[in-house]
Specification:
alpha+beta, Ubiquitin-like (UB roll), 5-stranded mixed beta sheet, 13% helix, globular
Length: 106
């Protein structure tokens, strides 16, 4: 299993074991990580699974699609390192990925 590290705004950390092939969003939901609402269930239509990817991980991920970039426009406080966690797929190459959960979603 691949480990994903979620850091909350209050510095609490949740390290979860994620199955390869699932989304980072699904791993968060299945492990009770607070702050990932995922209202659309991963359909790339709401931006309530918005996260900030740690800078040193950005170049290891597949780039965001045009649809994801468009959806991020409605996210609360998007930054250059913003991603929708439903679009980041777990694989052994991202073992140890660190994501920061925004203070709030919509």
């Amino acid at each position: 299993m691949t480990k994903i590290r979620f850091i909350q705004q209050d510095e609490r950390e949740f390290v979860v074991d994620a199955r390869d092939g699932e989304s980072v969003m699904r791993a968060a939901l299945e492990n009770g990580v607070p702050g990932i609402a995922a209202d659309c269930g991963g359909c790339l239509s709401c931006a309530t699974c918005h996260v900030y990817i740690a800078e040193d991980w950005l170049d290891r991920l597949e780039p965001a699609s045009e649809d994801e970039v468009a959806a991020l426009e409605i996210a609360v406080d998007p930054q250059p390192n913003s991603r929708l966690s439903c679009q980041v797929i777990v694989s052994p190459t991202i073992d140890g990925l660190t994501v920061n959960v925004p203070e709030r979603q919509f």
